[in-house]
Write a structure and sequence with these properties.
By secondary structure, this protein is of the alpha+beta class. It folds into 2 domains: about 140 residues, Beta Barrel (OB fold (Dihydrolipoamide Acetyltransferase, E2P)); about 260 residues, BirA Bifunctional Protein, domain 2 (2-Layer Sandwich), CATH 3.30.930. The chain has 17 helices and 20 strands. The strands form 5 sheets. An 8-stranded mixed sheet has the order 6-10-11-20-19-18-15-14, with helices on both faces. Strands 1-2-3-5-4 form a 5-stranded mixed β-barrel. Strands 7-9-8 form a 3-stranded antiparallel sheet, with no helix packed on it. Strand 18 and strand 19 form a beta hairpin. The chain is elongated, with a radius of gyration of 29 Å.
Length: about 500
């Protein structure tokens, strides 16, 4: 039995009994139809007109408060649009119906109320009930409205109760919806086509991350939940599209913390005949219009104790120069063992399977990214970190790549795409070597993608942007679980 039922077992049994008694009177506690013809908001917006006309309306919603006064009762009920008071009188609805109402209805029940506008002595807009009908009998009580629901673990596990007890939570998800809608409008307006690519993939590629593995019975093969849609989106560019994007649910078998959830949402897009320098200018314009739209026209966003200023342009900081300065070394001259020693000194837990790229990345996160609050582009990453990006012409150990970092977190990752199939083939071999050596985050070698590249990929730039982190950033939220309706949680033992 679920944990909430244990503590309120008596009330659960009482509510079940009420449902049985309703059925015994040929009243369904769960009817399939309602005559509802308006919303609470519409009723309140047109209250004065309805009060003057005496027009009838049928509303429906969940009872949130109930106060009995002899032969009458006041209750508040709500639908998605708002909350309103109802006045139920025995004289209006009849003694039998009133007795049914007082005996069998509880807080949390869904009801249908037919009535007309009525103003109380305190001038509160009210619906005077001509009839009241049960629509859904609740068997468990809602959280106490005074005590609320504050335990984060319970809030995330039982989001439906969180939404009922803490209506302000809906504001974060309204912001999320607005951001996603704006993304679609912005990209559609500049000529992009929204597409879908497979979630089940035979090779876990497109990002450096450990995948989830599943098994297909009919084909008798292992498949991977996608870590990124990249390799399929680039196949579409090869096939003749020039601008494609996907708002994609991705899955990475990694740790859970305030910035990471094993399944998350991102937008990835690819634009033929563009490079990473062009994308930096493009994404600056995107952020300017997005931030203004969701932040009342201002580019200054409050986030914790900081005010993030999204006024462009954003500084462009070279990866090597920043890490050289932070570590006071030349990373090109440092051996792998030098990097291991630096990491251990910094109390970074080093795994023996880590290659040079992973070591540099962890040092960068610790000494460079962790200090960046305002928007910065980190550009020109090491080749070892970027198996899918094009090399810099004058620095072959580095690639045409950037990350947009805000409030110490990576918001965007982008690069000029590698379109040399032979170079790509060699880099996949290196990823395979790392994977065989125990690095479960190394990318899979996708031979079919290499074959596709051999048919020709035009110069192309691509970018991935985490939507969950974007909502956290613009919504002043510290924990990714606050912006995902149903975050991954460890099951509680029975």
């Amino acid at each position: 039995m679920p944990e909430l039922e244990i503590s309120i077992n008596d009330e659960f049994q009482q509510r079940c009994r009420k449902a049985e008694l309703l059925q015994a009177q040929n009243i369904s506690p769960y009817p399939s139809q309602t005559a509802k013809n308006g919303s609470v908001k519409a009723f309140l917006d047109n209250f004065a007109t309805m009060l003057a006309s005496g027009e009838k309306i049928i509303l429906a919603g969940r009872i949130r408060s109930l106060r009995l006064q002899g032969g009458s009762a006041f209750l508040h009920f709500e639908d998605e649009s708002g909350r309103v008071q109802a006045f139920v009188r025995k004289d209006n609805i009849g003694e039998k119906n009133y007795q049914e109402f007082t005996d069998f209805y509880d807080l949390g029940d869904f009801v249908e109320i037919t009535g007309s506008a009525f103003e109380t002595k305190t001038k509160e807009p009210t619906i005077l009930a001509d009839s009241i009908k049960i629509l859904s009998k609740t068997l468990l009580p809602l959280p106490d409205k005074h005590a609320g629901l504050k335990d984060p673990d319970l809030r995330f596990r039982k989001r439906y109760l969180d939404l009922l007890a803490n209506p302000e939570v809906k504001d974060v998800f309204k912001l999320r919806s607005t951001i996603i809608r704006n993304i679609r409008e912005y990209f559609d307006a500049v000529g992009f086509v929204e597409v879908d690519t497979p979630i089940l993939q035979t090779v876990a590629g497109g990002a450096t991350a450990a995948p989830f593995v599943t098994h297909h019975k009919a084909l008798d093969i292992d498949l991977y939940l996608r870590v990124a849609p990249e390799l399929y989106l680039k196949r579409l560019i090869i096939g003749g599209y020039e601008q494609v994007y996907e708002i994609a649910r991705c899955f990475r078998n990694e740790g859970i913390d305030h910035q990471h959830n094993p399944e998350f949402t991102q937008i990835e897009f690819y634009w033929a005949y563009k490079d990473y320098q062009f994308l930096m200018d493009f994404i600056e314009k995107f952020f300017e219009q997005l931030v203004k739209k969701v932040n009342n026209g201002s580019l200054q966003v409050k986030n914790g104790d900081d005010v993030i200023d999204f006024t462009t342009p954003y500084p462009r900081v070279d990866f090597k120069e920043a890490l050289d300065k932070a570590l006071d070394i030349d990373i090109d001259k440092a051996t792998n063992q030098d990097l291991v020693e630096l990491a251990k000194t910094a109390k970074i837990s080093v795994d023996k399977s880590w290659g040079r790229g992973k070591l540099l990345d962890e040092l960068y996160k610790k000494f460079v990214r962790a200090k960046m609050i305002q928007p910065h582009f980190i550009i020109n990453h090491p080749l070892d970190l970027s198996p899918l990006a094009k090399k810099l012409a004058d620095r072959p150990n580095y690639v045409e790549r950037f990350q947009l970092v805000v409030k110490t977190a990576e918001v965007c990752n982008a690069f000029s795409e590698l379109n040399d199939p032979l170079d790509q083939e060699e880099r996949f071999k290196e990823q395979k070597r790392l994977k065989d050596g125990g690095d479960d985050e190394a990318q899979g070698a996708d031979a079919d993608f290499v074959e596709a590249l051999k048919h020709g990929l035009p110069p192309t730039a691509g970018l991935g942007m985490g939507i969950d982190r974007l909502v956290m950033l613009l919504g002043d939220v510290e924990n990714i679980k606050e912006v995902i309706f149903f975050p991954t949680m460890k099951p509680k033992e029975k």
